[in-house]
Amino acid sequence: MKYFSLNNKAPKVSFEEAVVLGLAPDKGLYFPESITPLPHSFFQNIENLSHEEIAYEAIKQFVGDEIPETELKQIITETLCFDFPCVPVEENVFSLELFHGPTMAFKDVGARFMSRCLGYFNRHDDKKKVTVLVATSGDTGGAVASGFLGVKGVEVVILYPSGKVSEIQERQLTTLGQNIKALEVDGVFDDCQDMVKKAFLDESLKPYHLTSANSINIARWLPQMFYIFFAYQQLKKHNKPIILSCPSGNFGNICAGIMAKRLGLPIAHFVASTNANDTVPRFLQQGLYEPKPSVATISNAMDVGNPSNFIRIQELYHHDLKEFENDFTSYSFTDSETKAALKDLYHRTGYIAEPHGTIGYLGLKKEMPKHPGSIGVFLETAHPIKFLDVVEPLLDLTLTIPSQIESVLGKEKVSVKIKTYQELKDFLK
Length: 429
Prior knowledge:
Elements: E1 2-5, E2 13-14, H1 15-21, E3 30-32, H2 40-44, H3 51-63, H4 69-79, E4 86-90, E5 93-97, H5 107-121, E6 130-135, H6 139-148, E7 154-161, H7 167-174, E8 180-185, H8 189-200, E9 210-211, H9 218-221, H10 226-235, E10 242-247, H11 252-262, E11 269-274, H12 279-286, H13 310-316, H14 321-326, E12 328-332, H15 335-349, H16 355-367, E13 375-380, H17 388-395, H18 403-409, E14 416-418, H19 421-428
Helix pairs in contact: 3-4, 4-5, 5-6, 6-7, 11-13, 15-16, 15-17
């Protein structure tokens, strides 16, 4: 399998090169040269397959022969070491809970898969060092820190916006030590992401072998298909069209869902549910793609003004707006709407959501009336404990702290404060 830059001004590369580079030299995101649908028999028999078997079939064409079957299956086994339940919330509405992993966020899947791929590529070279440079608006940092902790030949540098991630999220990325370093940026997530992208293209930093663990990296993004397949596996028995609603920031999950559909997964419609950062909903209304600086919301992991993966979604629809609109809708919701829905959901059903999942739920409920006879799934992308400052006062309850979170609460935060790209550059050198 070869990968090409979506800016079409860089050479095609192998899977390994795409993973190690992260971003193409022409600033474009990498995209697979071909997508071969899985056989119909795979979907007919999917309920009889293990998670590991499903994931292997979904990903193997994108890895090709660069990781042998035995090693790839081991990477998948180590990645999928927790559950992905579809929990019934109300009639015909399910929550796909993606927070049962080590850092209690959906990004555990991509971070674990990518870290193990890099570990495999570095297996014979004791001198080669790769620096994973990543921007986070919330959960990416903790998942990457956990997934890459102690991985041979990999240093991790995480940029996060000061004061704009929750305390638990901050502790997950600033307390591990070893090969994990945290940079606290005076700015917003977009500032962090801009610094990371600039560093990738900085010729003077080439000796440091920078790569990304954001969803711009194919090894972080592609495995996010896995749990979309798992949702279908659980809901296939209902024999109804499935509407999938993703709370969307950088648009990695919904892009992975569309990729799964290209492989043959029968998802009837996608909903990209956003907070006040509404670049994509405005695009669908006006036909103009006009990113704006991000604004802070209670769903901070979605505070992205210029979602990186949207260009991949456009590629998947051949840049045809009509084709795109046939099975893609996007809605934006305010903090007040999110709070009201989170509270209403709890009091009606007893289900404790958090702000991001609640926005996914709101988008789903807005779209489902257009698809009579369907069932809906919204992604619950992180555990409510990570947003206890919102959830607890709103629902007037005290959340039990899971063991995964308790383990970091007593540790000392260690971070380096920076304001400018030059400070990042000096730190890397």
